[in-house]
Amino acid sequence: MKHRVLFLCIGNSCRSQLAEAIVNARLGEEWHAYSAGTKTAGHVHRNALRVLAEIGIEHPGRSKSVQEYRGQPFDLVVTVCDAAAEDCPLWLGQGQRVHLGFPDPAKATGTEAEILTAFRRVRDDIGEQIPGLLRRWQATNP
Fold it and tell me: Is 9 designated active site?
């Protein structure tokens, strides 16, 4: 049986979408990832989709409200907002809660190349840190 993980952030347009897509693409045999936000942007940021496509992940993302998952059981709930700069969502449902913060690439400024670099950096950090977090969780919660 697959473990269920929910990634939460504010807008559900970048970071939580990146995490959902990367986990489902790379760890889909063991995990089923979902994502949501407390104040949804109503869209998945085009640059998030673009940097996922660069690493071979096609993500049919949809910006979802945390209300969509109310009452559903999750093994793990991970907030991915930058705690120092934002009010992270609070999850009151079932599932162990963990915070692993990343800066919001949607707030990046500069040239298009500089903005894409910010998205790639967050994508790569998520791609490195989230699988490690999930493996550590599995090791202590078989």
Answer: yes
Predicted confidence at residue 87, as pLDDT, reads 59
83: tokens are: 């705690």
Q: 117, exposed or middle or buried, with CB in 10 Å at 0-12, 13-18, 19+?
A: middle
pLDDT digits (tens, 9 = 90+) for 31-54: 999 999 988 889 999 999 999 999
User: What does the pLDDT look like over 99-124, one tens digit per residue?
Assistant: 999 999 999 999 999 999 999 999 99
How far apart CA 73 and CA 20 sit, in angstroms, is: 16
Rounded to an integer, what distance in angstroms lies between the CA atom of residue 77 and that of residue 35? Answer: 9
- The domains of the chain are located at 3-137
Question: Which of the following is catalytic: 5, 6, 9, 22?
Answer: 9
Q: How many Cα atoms are found within 13 Å in the side-chain-facing hemisphere of 57? A: 23
Q: Is 14 a catalytic residue?
A: no
CATH architecture of 3-137: 3-Layer(aba) Sandwich (3.40)
Catalytic residue among 81, 118, 122, 126: 81
Place of tokens 């709930």: 77
Give the three-state DSSP class for 57.
coil
